[in-house]
Amino acid sequence: MKVPAKVPVVVDGKQLVLTNLDKVLYPEAGFTKAEVIDYYSRIAPAMLPHLRGRPLTVKRYPNGVTGPFFFEKNAPRHTPPWIRRVTLPVPGSTKDRESIEFAVVDDLPTLVYYANLAALEIHVPMWRVSAEGAALPPDILVFDLDPGPGATIVECCRVAVLLRDALAADGHACYPKTSGNKGMQLHVPWPDPDRATSPYAKELARLLDAGHDLVTSVMSKRLRPGKVFIDWSQNNPAKTTVAAYSLRANAQPTVSAPLSWEEVEDCESADQLVFTGPDVLARVAEFGDLFP
Asked: Among 43, 53, 59, 262, whose Cα sits 20 to 30 Å from the Cα of 291?
């Protein structure tokens, strides 16, 4: 039976109209928009704590992962009035804008609204906004581990353990997740609002670069074959990182999935740490949220 083009629903008291639910957004997997919305609806209890208060950037794929896409930071004109928005300065904007009105995903209806826009990927910064909408200092430090040619997430896991131990020596805990693509990230809760994250991340990355042949802290492609690039620059307040539990726009509906350190330490092949939306729902049902 054909699904109606428009389906009105009520989500936690908010009225939405879901559209084109039978559109296939992941052709190789046959994964539809309805399944994308279902995934985000069901993962919301684990995902929302990592989104609340963070200005939103999405990567939208109106015709699926094989079609054109676009990044969207500014809340669309048709954004419902009940979605929280904050206006923030964007110095150096590529579109010469002085400020952007960002949406903030604070609740399930907002998450469903964006899933219905085929916002497959959800990206957020490492800082939040106050109740009044002002930018706060970073509360997370992030390391993005990107394998160069000849390396995989297996090598990323080895570097993640090196970073974990170095951070622990400085009194910091950290939490791993896959990127949902070929690499991974480490999130470090950052308790000191008066201490910038970027200089510390840069110093630690360069320290590991100097001491381990597997590591590079330099973006230059000629230095990356067989190595893992520790991208510390993601701590620039103007940058975002894919959110925990976000889908990624790959052939399969892979997810940026939080990991246990046991999984990281035991990784021996790249396919061990590939998780799709259904996989992640099962993982959260069994283990709960592995992220802080």
From this structure: 59
Alpha carbon distance, N-terminus to C-terminus of the chain? 43
Cβ neighbours for 284, distance < 8 A, ≥ 6 positions apart: 43, 46
Please give the backbone phi and psi of residue 149, each rounded to the nearest 5 degrees, phi first: -55, 130
d(CA 57, CA 46): 19
The strand pairing partners of 89, in sequence order, are: 99
166-201 CB burial, b ≥16 within 10 A, e <16: bbeeeebebbbbbbbbbbbbbbbebeeeeeebbebb
**How far is it between the farthest Cα atoms of the chain?**
62
Burial class (CB in 10 A: 0-12, 13-18, 19+), 109: buried
What does each of the 292 residues of the chain score in pLDDT, given as a tens digit?
A: 677 889 999 999 999 999 999 999 999 999 999 999 999 999 999 999 999 999 999 999 999 999 999 999 999 989 999 999 999 998 665 566 789 999 999 999 999 999 999 999 999 999 999 999 999 999 999 999 999 999 999 999 999 999 999 999 999 999 999 999 999 999 999 999 999 999 999 999 999 999 999 999 998 777 788 999 999 999 999 999 999 999 999 999 999 999 999 999 999 999 999 999 999 999 999 999 999 8
Burial per residue of 77-101, b for 16 or more beta-carbon CB atoms within 10 angstroms, e otherwise: eebeeebbbbeeebeeeeeeeeebe
Four-point Cα dihedral 77, 78, 80, 86, nearest 10? -20
Report how far residue 82's alpha carbon sits from residue 209's, in angstroms, rounded to the nearest whole number: 47
- The token duo for 25 is 């957004």
Which alpha helices (DSSP H) does the chain contain, by range?
A: 33-51, 108-116, 153-169, 197-211, 261-265, 277-287
Residues 292 and 99: their CA atoms lie apart, in Å, by: 31
